């Protein structure tokens, strides 16, 4: 019995995972070293709502080293890595993680973080900002990690309810070109494979949405031999998918042959009752978009569909005498079924977070209550640091080229 492998990863495993993430996130370490001696974030308290992973731990412990006090809650009820929670608690980080995975406990965690009155707000999805915007204490600013959150913030700005400056980290090229495309593209396929173990070669995979995430998923699936079909509502993105070599069809034209459906649109009910009823026996449905709204869960969970759990994160519904499989309750499959994005990718995303947070702390008196892009200087700085970490050199513009270009 003594040699039985542990089922729940231990605190020791948390430390090993943190070491592994650090090894592959050197950019964060370089930024911390540059700002550490200046006590850059001394006196700031940061409320964070992000997926609790080993990569997030690197960001959080870095912010702590810069002098900030941190309060954190999970950005998704199912994505938390428990051994990382233990590790963060051991390092003195206040983690709010009510037992239970209900939507009520998810919101309660956010409220408990906000009870500490953090003056910088870091979110992934917009829900945490939504609650912070209703508070009456001084917030210096915030950041937003993902596409869905940025869409919501832009809508709130038009409605004039943004009360503090928020930097849209997702809009940085050093975030979406890499995290959404290469990171989520790879980790979504990884999450599907870890959950089901199926072979992708020869499968007909329907990717719903050809934005940054969709492009990454489609290309990764193609690389493993799948036949990829894209569904879109945007004519230009649809054209791009076509010219990238994918078939493009309305979703209802795919239901007779689709083997695996992956949603990544940020939209509501992309896969609906009328589609599911016509799908073939054995079809697999999953989602990589931020919220669990892209697959019609209300319909799937209606009483007549008799869900059975086959294995962790894999459920079977009986619909019209056919087996319809759902992964990870329709939540982000890459984080629920896998470990999320790789550390090299999260180093880029979190370098944007880190430098944006420092930018807010240095400029909070000058910034207005609106949604800002990540400053170009920060974007480029991260590009330079990343190239250096991969040991890649590039050319410099000559004086002659400079005057030609700008004349
Ligand atoms: N799982 C992760 O780790 C992770 C990482 C990054 C982003 N995200 C999330 O993934 C989602 C997509 O992000 P993105 O950066 O690709 O956004 P994006 O805006 O670049 O792309 C979304 C695409 O979906 C298309 N679309 C919208 N409604 C559609 C519908 N009904 N049918 C088909 N296509 C439709 C849009 O036209 C657009 O091309 C967002 O919810 C984002 O927050 C998740």
What is the C-level CATH assignment of the largest domain?
Alpha Beta
Q: Reading side by side through the largest sheet, how are the strands ordered?
A: 9-8-7-10-11-14-13-12
Tally of DSSP β-strands: 15
What general outline do the C-alpha atoms trace? globular
Compute the average pLDDT: 95
CATH architecture of the largest domain: 3-Layer(aba) Sandwich
- CATH H-level name of the largest domain... which superfamily? Adenosylhomocysteinase-like
Task: Work out the strand percent.
Answer: 15-25%
- The CATH topology of the largest domain is Rossmann fold
What's the helix count?
16
Largest sheet, if any? 8 strands, mixed
Structural class: alpha/beta
- Heterogens: nicotinamide-adenine-dinucleotide
Helix content: 40-55%
Distance between the termini: 76 Å
Low confidence ranges: 1-6
Number of domains: 2
User: What multimeric state do the chains show?
Assistant: single chain
Rg result:
22 Å
């Amino acid at each position: 019995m003594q040699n039985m492998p542990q089922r729940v990863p231990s605190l020791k495993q948390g430390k090993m995972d943190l070491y592994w993430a650090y090894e592959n996130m050197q950019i964060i370490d370089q930024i911390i070293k540059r700002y550490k001696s200046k006590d850059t974030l001394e006196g700031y308290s940061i409320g964070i709502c992000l997926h609790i992973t080993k990569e997030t731990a690197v960001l959080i412990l870095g912010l702590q080293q810069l002098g900030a006090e941190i309060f954190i809650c999970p950005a998704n009820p199912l994505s938390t890595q428990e051994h990382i929670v233990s590790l963060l608690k051991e390092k003195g980080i206040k983690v709010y993680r009510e037992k239970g995975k209900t939507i009520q406990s998810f919101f309660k965690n956010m409220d408990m973080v906000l009870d500490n009155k953090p003056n910088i707000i870091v979110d992934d999805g917009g829900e945490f900002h939504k609650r912070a915007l209703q508070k009456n204490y001084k917030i210096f600013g915030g950041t937003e990690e993902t596409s869905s959150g940025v869409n919501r913030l832009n809508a709130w700005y038009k409605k004039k309810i943004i009360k503090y400056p928020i930097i849209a980290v997702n809009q940085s090229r050093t975030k979406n070109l890499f995290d959404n495309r290469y990171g989520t593209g790879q980790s979504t396929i990884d999450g599907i494979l870890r959950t089901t173990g199926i072979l992708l070669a020869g499968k007909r995979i329907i990717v719903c949405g050809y934005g940054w995430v969709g492009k990454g998923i489609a290309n990764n699936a193609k690389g493993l031999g799948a036949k990829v079909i894209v569904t879109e509502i945007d004519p230009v993105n649809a054209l791009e998918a076509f010219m990238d070599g994918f078939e493009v069809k309305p979703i209802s034209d795919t239901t007779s042959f689709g083997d695996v459906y992956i949603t990544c649109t940020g939209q509501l009910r992309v896969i609906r009752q009328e589609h599911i009823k016509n799908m073939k026996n054995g079809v697999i449905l999953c989602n990589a978009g931020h919220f669990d709204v892209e697959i019609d869960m209300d319909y799937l969970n209606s009483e007549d569909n008799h869900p059975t759990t086959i294995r962790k994160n894999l459920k079977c519904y009986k619909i019209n005498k056919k087996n319809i499989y759902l992964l990870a309750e329709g939540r982000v499959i890459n984080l629920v079924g896998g470990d999320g994005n790789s550390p090299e990718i999260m180093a880029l995303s979190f370098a944007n977070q880190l430098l944006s947070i420092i930018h807010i702390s240095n400029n909070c008196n000058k910034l207005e209550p609106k949604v800002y892009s990540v400053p170009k200087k920060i974007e480029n700085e991260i590009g330079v640091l990343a190239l250096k970490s991969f040991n890649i050199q590039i050319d410099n513009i000559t004086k002659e080229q400079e005057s030609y270009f700008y004349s």
